[in-house]
Amino acid sequence: MQYRSVQRMSRTVFRSTLTTLLLLPLYALATGPLSEQRLSEQRKGEIGQIVQQDCGSCHGLTLKGGLGPNLDPARLAQYPNGFLKATILHGRPGTPMPPWGPLLSADEIHYIATQLRSGVWYVP
Ligand code: HEC
Q: How far apart are CA 56 and CA 71, in angstroms?
């Protein structure tokens, strides 16, 4: 094969891989099937601790707010699901809210969003 066509081919492969990588999280968030049923009870417990300790370091141990705003389910109800999950997945660039995509799976982020909405971790 000629050098040029190999170069063109690898560029195409690179571009489609990049597109897939960029679109995958969006696809997962938009279409699912996301399910906390795939998470073990042990993992759910660990996530509860992550939320209390890591998220809690900014949002307050009981999620009543601190450096980050309170995560009061009544207030979160104003946001569409996708927006809530995108905030956790990507963080809020330009603010201290970090992206959790590198640490948590789409199912785990879905679980956190569902739990935040239900208010089980929120102590008013
Ligand atoms: C280093 C501090 C920090 C940590 C850790 C952190 N957050 Fe945040 N978070 C923020 C800040 C600051 C904002 C507000 C960003 C803005 O100004 O829009 C925010 C915003 C949010 C929002 C949107 C709230 C709203 O009303 O717009 C959600 C939801 C959220 N965080 C969830 C989480 C979750 C879940 C975790 C843990 C997995 C977490 N955050 C960890 C600082 C943090």
A: 10
**pLDDT 10s digits, 54-104:** 999 999 999 999 999 999 999 999 999 999 999 999 999 999 999 999 999
What's the chain's average pLDDT? 86
Q: Is 58's C-beta closer than 6 angstroms to any atom of ligand 1? A: yes
Identify the pLDDT of residue 35.
Answer: 79
| Short-list 51, 29, 23, CA closest to 117 | 51
Between these two residues, 3 and 79, which has the higher pLDDT value?
A: 79
Q: Which of 51, 54, 59 to mutate to test the pocket of ligand 1 (most atoms within 8 A of CB)?
A: 59
8 Å CB contact between 106 and 29 = yes
CATH architecture of 32-118: Orthogonal Bundle (1.10)
Would you kindly state where each structural domain of the chain is located, as residue ranges? 32-118
Report whether residue 54 contacts ligand 1, using a CB cutoff of 6 Å. yes
d(CA 40, CA 111): 12
